[in-house]
Specification:
The chain is an alpha/beta fold. It has helices at 17-28, 40-52, 69-81, 104-132, 152-172, 192-200, 204-209, 220-230, 254-261, and strands at 8-12, 32-37, 57-61, 86-89, 135-140, 177-184, 242-245. The protein binds nicotinamide-adenine-dinucleotide (NAD).
């Protein structure tokens, strides 16, 4: 497939995990990609891999939560690649696991990376996209936006991302811009919250698999495929939606069905 030929894309947090997989996938499909990460080496590594494919990439380094980062980094991406067709709001921060453990400063920090930065990046790309009459924004939310699964500040910020997505879809849809979200379930990545859980329990992903009707947790490519669909022209009638990619986690509870049906006809 060559759905992204001639398209330019900026992906926040694309040095690792889901963002990295998305950058490589969209580049494979023809996109020129701005690979943005707070860490220089992973960003440059992904950009090099894309160049090795014979595609175009630029590595950008910065903290998306810093004041002015949206405008500055979108400016750098457009200087290198030309006007942006696609923005993927991917980087996020998850902190305390329970509400009891949260504190106001930590709550604000999680919101700053997960929601406020996405808002700022949208603000930076929307005027140009509206002027050109075309653009797509995909924000990576989470099943945590829809169900209580720990990390309450992160979850509330992800729910905010869904509201932001709907607002952009309705306000900017008439100007040729589509905004959608993807809500992953557990994805096997090196995200710091997974590193911490793995340090406590090396079998955490295997143990979590039992909650997933498909019998496994997800991989970054599972989400990259959904993002690649939502930002492509073939999804031209898909606007303001949230695509849950969770192996059936939120569809229902097999454990509850078992209790309800044991001994029944
Ligand atoms: N992994 C999961 O189980 C899971 C589940 C649901 C949603 N998500 C969401 O998917 C997205 C990607 O998660 P992941 O698991 O691939 O994470 P990851 O840690 O593997 O990758 C995230 C990348 O973002 C970068 N980053 C972090 N903060 C940044 C900042 N302030 N500025 C710029 N770059 C920054 C990191 O350096 C890293 O390279 C996040 O929005 C996360 O909430 C992940």
């Amino acid at each position: 497939m060559n759905r992204y030929a001639g398209r330019t894309v900026l992906i926040t947090g694309s040095g690792r995990g889901i963002g990295r997989a998305t950058a490589l996938r969209l580049a494979k499909e023809g996109a020129a990609v701005a690979v943005l990460d707070i860490d220089s080496e992973p960003a440059h590594d992904v950009a090099r891999k894309i160049a090795d494919m014979g595609r175009t990439a630029v590595a950008l380094v910065g903290d998306i939560a810093e004041d002015g980062a949206g405008e500055r980094l979108v400016g750098e991406a457009e200087k290198a690649l030309g006007p942006l067709d696609v923005l993927v709001n991917n980087a996020a921060m998850a902190g305390r696991g329970t509400l009891e453990a949260t504190e106001p400063d930590g709550w604000d920090a999680e919101f700053a990376v997960t929601l406020r930065a996405a808002y700022n990046f949208c603000r930076a790309v929307l005027p140009g996209m509206a002027e050109r009459g075309r653009g797509a924004i995909v924000s990576v939310a989470s099943v945590n936006a829809l169900s209580a699964l720990a990390n309450p500040a992160y979850s509330a910020a992800k729910a905010g991302l869904l509201a932001l997505t709907r607002q952009i879809a309705v306000e900017y849809g008439p100007r040729g811009i589509r905004a959608n979200a993807v809500s992953p379930g557990t994805i096997h990545t090196d995200h710091p919250s997974w590193q911490a859980r793995l340090a406590r329990d090396p079998d955490v992903f295997e143990k979590l698999a039992r909650w997933y009707p498909v019998g496994r947790v997800g991989q970054p490519d599972d989400i990259a495929a959904a993002i690649a669909y939502l930002a492509a022209d073939e999804a031209g009638f898909v606007n303001g939606t949230n695509l849950v990619v969770d192996g059936g986690l939120l569809a229902g509870s097999a454990q509850m069905i078992e209790v309800l049906t044991t001994g029944a006809d």
